[in-house]
Amino acid sequence: MSNTSTISLSDEGVSVVDEHLLDQDTKPVSIQINNVTVSFKTPKGIYTAVKEIDLTVRKGEIVALIGHSGCGKSTLMSTISGMVKPTSGEVYANGKKVTSPGPDRGIVFQNYSLLPWLTVYRNIYVAVDAALKDKTAAEKTALVETNLKMVNLWEHKDKLPGQLSGGMKQRVAIARAFSINPKILLLDEPFGALDALTKSSMHIELLKLWVMDDRQKTIIMVTHDIEEAIFLSDRVVVMNNGPAATIKEIVDIPLSRPRNKKDIVHDPAYIQIHDKLLNLLIDKFSIADL
Ligand SMILES: Nc1ncnc2c1ncn2[C@@H]1O[C@H](COP(=O)(O)OP(=O)(O)OP(=O)(O)O)[C@@H](O)[C@H]1O
C-alpha cells in the first residue's frame, strides 16, 4: 500500500492529497490510558478530578479533548505527559508505562511555560538542545530560526517573555514544540489566545508538521473550539463535568482530508457532527428551556 501524501498550501488551508485511506484500527497503539483516576489532596479533602478513564489513541491519530472548564482535560494531558501520576490506573506511551515526562511526548501548555529570564530565541534553543542531542549546533540553530519565522516572531527573538503579548507567548511555545517535533504532541489549548487569522495559519502549520511526518505523529489537543476540533481531528473525546469526570462520548470525524476550512462548514456531515458536539456540551439552548 502506498504511504505517500503531498501537501500544497493555499489561502484556504492545507491541501493534502491522499493516496491511501488510513485504516486506524490496524495502526499501532500510541497512547493507552487504562482505568485512570486522578485525585488531588486539597485543604478540604481529596478531590477526584477524573475517574476511570479508558482511552486508546493510535499512532498518527489526531484526537481533540473537549468539555466544560474544570472537567479535567489538563489533568488528563498532564497524566499522559507524565507530570501528574495517576492515583490509580496507568498510561502507556508507545508501549512503555509513563512514569515521568520524556522527549517522546512534547507538550504545549495553556500558560506557555516559558522561562522568564531567557529570550524568545534561547527559550526555544535550550529546549531543542536538551531534547535533540544528536543534532549539530547548526541544525539546532536552523530549527529554531525556521520555527520562529513560521510563527512570525523572528523579529522578536531577542525579547524576554515579559515583553510579549499572550498570543506571542503562545506562539513561542508552539514554535518550541514544533522545533522539537516529538512523536507525540500534547497541546493544551494551544491556539486559545490567538486571533482568528493566526489561529488558522497555526492549524495549517500543525497539519503540515503532521503530514511531513508521514502522518505518524500522534496529536492530542485540548480545545474549547468545536470548529477547530472538527477541522483538525479524527476523533473528539467529550468529557462529562467534574468532579470525578468521565468520558461522555467519543465522536468520530469521518470527514475526508484535505479539509478545506471554507468548504467544510457547508458539508452536511460537518453540520451534523457540529450539532452533535454542541448537544453533548450544551444541554439547554434557550431561556425558555430553563
Ligand atoms: N494540583 C491540583 N490540586 C488540586 N486540585 C486540582 C489540581 N489540579 C487540578 N485540580 C482540580 O481538578 C479539576 C480539573 O482541573 P483541570 O485543570 O484539569 O480542568 P480543565 O478541564 O483543564 O479546565 P479548563 O478548561 O478551565 O482549563 C479542577 O476542579 C481543578 O481545580
Structure description:
The chain is 32% helix and 27% strand. Helix 2 (120-131) crosses helix 3, helix 2 (120-131) runs parallel beside helix 4 (166-180) and helix 3 crosses helix 4. It is built from eight helices and twelve strands. The strands form three sheets. It has a six-stranded mixed β-sheet with strand order 8-9-10-5-11-12, with helices on both faces. The model is unreliable at 1-22 (pLDDT under 50). Strand 6 (88-93) and strand 7 (96-97) form a beta hairpin. It has a domain at 60-82 and 97-241 and 249-282: Rossmann fold, CATH 3.40.50.300. It has 290 residues and is of the alpha/beta class. Residues 40, 42, 47, 49, 67, 69-75, 242 line the site of adenosine-5'-triphosphate.
Question: What features would you highlight for this structure?
Answer:
290 residues; alpha/beta; Rossmann fold; four-stranded antiparallel beta sheet; 8 helices; 27% strand; binds adenosine-5'-triphosphate; AAA+_ATPase; P-loop_NTPase; cell membrane
Quick synopsis:
With 290 residues, the chain is of the alpha/beta class. Helix content is 32%, strand content 27%.
Can you identify the CATH superfamily of the domain at 60-82 and 97-241 and 249-282?
A: P-loop containing nucleotide triphosphate hydrolases
Strand order of the largest sheet: 8-9-10-5-11-12
Flag low-confidence runs.
1-22
Look at the structure and give the mean pLDDT.
87
What is the CA-atom radius of gyration, in angstroms?
19 Å
Task: Identify the quaternary structure here.
Answer: single chain
Q: What is the H-and-E element order?
A: EEEEEHEEEHHHEHEHEEHH
Number of strands: 12
Q: Based on the coordinates given, report the CATH architecture of the domain at 60-82 and 97-241 and 249-282.
A: 3-Layer(aba) Sandwich
| Small molecules bound | adenosine-5'-triphosphate
CATH T-level fold name of the domain at 60-82 and 97-241 and 249-282: Rossmann fold
Q: Kindly provide the name of the CATH class of the domain at 60-82 and 97-241 and 249-282.
A: Alpha Beta
Helical element count? Answer: 8
Structural category is alpha/beta
Subcellular location: Cell membrane
Pfam families: ABC_tran (PF00005)
Domain ABC transporter: 31-266
GO molecular function, one term: ATP binding
